[in-house]
Amino acid sequence: MRGLFGNDWNWIVAGLVSAALLIGLGTLTRFPFLVSAVISVLVFFGLVFVLAPRQLFEGLDLRSIGGGQVAFARELLAKAQPAADRLAAAAGSIADKDMKAKVKDLSDIAADVISKVEAKPASAASVRRFLTYYVPQAAEIAEGYATLADRRAPSQQRLASIGSVITKLQDAFVHYADSQADSELGTLDVDLRLIQESLKEDIGR
């Protein structure tokens, strides 16, 4: 069932709600048990679908995209998304405002790059190293900072050293985000050249 509708949590929530509804209809109304049961079952399956996690590449016409590109992007995102989630969680657990903002920036960039790869699987190649190396490493370092900072007497030298690495990671994240945009602009440059050649042929300009 997990493969069909998503993670187990949506089944659990749907089961709890439908069970409560069945009990409520049976005790608070005069509905026959069979009617209450049918309503509860319909609510159960409705919630299973509504609460099911969104699937990768949902809404894309995968038939128009190369199967190899989709498989490659899917593999990268399957590895990167858990690390991105850890990075976001680490940002929420850091008390220092400046460092929290830096890690939050890393998290936002990671989420943006991932969403763009999902929207355009062909862009995955340009950010492969970012997704498979930098995002997991950033999550590891941010978690380490949060753990160290939570000590009663953390080493300020170690905190400063980790903070310096996080600052450098910001530059790397921006670089890869821009490289993803550059790959899209490369297509724009080709389109502009073709338009200019067509205009020159059609109107002599």
How would you describe this protein?
This is 5-bromo-4-chloroindolyl phosphate hydrolysis family protein. Keywords: Membrane, Transmembrane, Transmembrane helix. The chain crosses the membrane at residues 9-27, 33-52. This protein has 205 residues and is mainly alpha-helical. Helix content is 80%, strand content 0%. It is built from 7 helices and no strands. Mean pLDDT is 79; it is low at 1-7.
Name the features.
single chain; 205 residues; mainly alpha; 7 helices; transmembrane; transmembrane helix; 5-bromo-4-chloroindolyl phosphate hydrolysis family protein; membrane; ChloroindolylP_hydrolase
DSSP strand tally: 0
Q: What is the helix/strand order?
A: HHHHHHH
Structural class per helix/strand content? mainly alpha
Low-pLDDT regions: 1-7
Number of helices: 7
Computed Rg = 25 Å
Short note summarizing the structure:
The protein has helices at residues 2-5, 8-28, 33-51, 67-93, 97-119, 128-149, 156-203. The protein is mostly helical and 205 residues long.
